[in-house]
Amino acid sequence: MCPLDSSRHLGYVSPGVYLMERLTGTVFRAHSGFFTVQTPAGALVCRLRGRLRKERLDTDIVAVGDRVVVEPAGDGTGLIVEVLPRTRVLSRRAPPAHPDDRRQVEQVIVANPDQAVFVFACAQPAPHLRMLDRLLVAAEAASLPALICANKVDLVTLEEAQALFGLYATIGYEVLYTSAKTGVGVDALRQRLTGKLSVLSGPSGVGKTSLLNAMQPGLGLQVREVSQATTKGRHTTVVPELVPIAGGGYVADTPGLRAMALWDIEPGELEAYFPDIRPFVAECEFSDCTHTHEPGCAVRAAVARGQIHPARYESLLRLRAEIEEELKKALR
């Protein structure tokens, strides 16, 4: 079912007394405390009811993709009075407000997505595969199907592109090779997105917005060139929003990520989110094996036999060390 299908219901002050008609809809844009909600009556620009704003939570109260109940004001605006439970989210640990801030807060990238599409460039900028590993871990932790989009194949040969991203296909992830410039793979990507709420995420400058324009001309999404001076992408998309796709479905085009701090994942459970490493964990001699030095470690033995790629093993160790360090900081 289309994620923006909505319903109506009435609120009551007491039995038989109507407060006003309430509408259920989906948040498809969020910006500076204002939320654009698609409802049966059309799009409403909403604020949070005061009671909701006062709630102190360790996550975003409302995010793009959330199903919400709103009270229309009759002038194209309304109040969000309830946020319905989320089925799943793609999220990260929010960057601290200041260096001494030790709070652990979840930043929801998109709520209730059907799938995640992680876009990385084959060149300009060079692919940051450790960030891709982080995103894949976040998707695995959320039980969110993931598709990898290797964009800008026009800048390299197909063999070079497959040398960069082919590892993930052997693990079991679907990898699409695309070029927003030449149109290679664009139709295949469109087919994967039709009828679903998909989140496009990845570093800045990899061509997420260009891909959307190539898939559906006329969206008018603003695109900027990658900075030639720093080889780091500028933030093209400044607020997350759901973009409708012809034929059905929505894409959440999100701000480019420079960091992806994992949320609510303990060091000891991390290997469960590496599908290529997970099968070997139960064979380790020690149940609390860190896969670094213990005798009888089946994971290290699999790396030595070539059954686990050394780069993925290194990603596991680095991520585990970073999570352990963050937990230490939180306790200081």
Overall description:
The protein has 332 residues and is an alpha/beta fold. It has helices at 50-53, 129-141, 158-171, 186-193, 208-215, 278-281, 298-304, 310-331, and strands at 7-14, 17-31, 34-39, 42-48, 67-72, 77-83, 89-93, 106-111, 115-121, 146-151, 174-177, 197-201, 241-244, 250-253. The strands form 3 sheets. The chain has a 6-stranded mixed beta sheet, sandwiched between helices. Strands 2-3-4-6-5 form a 5-stranded mixed beta barrel. Strands 7-8 form a two-stranded antiparallel sheet. A hairpin with a 5-residue loop joins strand 13 and strand 14 (250-253). The longest helix is centred in the C-terminal third of the chain and has 22 residues, at 310-331. The relative contact order is 0.11. The model is unreliable at 10-19 and 222-238 (pLDDT under 50).
Can you summarize this structure?
The chain is α/β, with parallel strands linked by helices. The chain has helices at residues 50-53, 129-141, 158-171, 186-193, 208-215, 278-281, 298-304, 310-331, and strands at 7-14, 17-31, 34-39, 42-48, 67-72, 77-83, 89-93, 106-111, 115-121, 146-151, 174-177, 197-201, 241-244, 250-253.
Indicate the proportion of strand residues. Answer: 25-35%
Largest pleated sheet: 6 strands, mixed
| Rg on CA atoms, Å | 22 Å
Mean pLDDT: 83
Distance between the amino and carboxyl termini: 47 Å
In percent, how helical is the residue content? 10-25%
Give, in order, the helices and strands. EEEEHEEEEEHEHEHEHEEHHH
Report strand order across the widest sheet. 11-10-9-12-14-13
Oligomer, anyone? single chain
**Uncertain spans, ≥5 residues at pLDDT below 50?**
10-19, 222-238
Give the helix tally.
8
Content-based structural category: alpha/beta
